[in-house]
């Protein structure tokens, strides 16, 4: 019985460590699973918050967006009036391996800031037509995606950023070496008990 349990446990860990998953947000009107979704909206310079900070996650054929007050593009992650920026937050609530993110409606005018919980933050764009960003297997529980290239970065009152999150590719955190040692130790105990019974 113990051997069966150990075998099943090892199978679960092996499957979890090796399997990556793509969460596709296109053509979906509800969260298809994966991380919890939330949003924020506010100014990049702190002086336009009188417009309000309420927002909601928007679902569209091109992927996830953010809807905010006075929003010129309510189904996309964008800059609203007067240099404000929308942020979409994807939170697994536990450490997860982030492999890549793919944007929808992405063009050469778009800038995005990617910030991991308790981890790195970097800015991507403009000047590229590639809509998939490799994240290199960063381990974090959450990722914030902010429309970054707004006033004064783009030099205009209403920014050019207008994109969606089409999909993410993630994987479970691999089992640490100590976990494999525990499984091996339990297997050894099961073998010893079986030999003792046979004797």
Automatic annotation (TrEMBL):
TM stretches of this protein: 173-192
**Keyword Transmembrane helix found:** yes
What InterPro entries does the entry give?
VPLPA-CTERM
Signal peptide positions are 1-20
Q: Which domain of life is it from?
A: Bacteria
Question: What are the alphabetically sorted keywords of the record?
Answer: Membrane, Signal, Transmembrane, Transmembrane helix
What this protein is called in its record is VPLPA-CTERM protein sorting domain protein
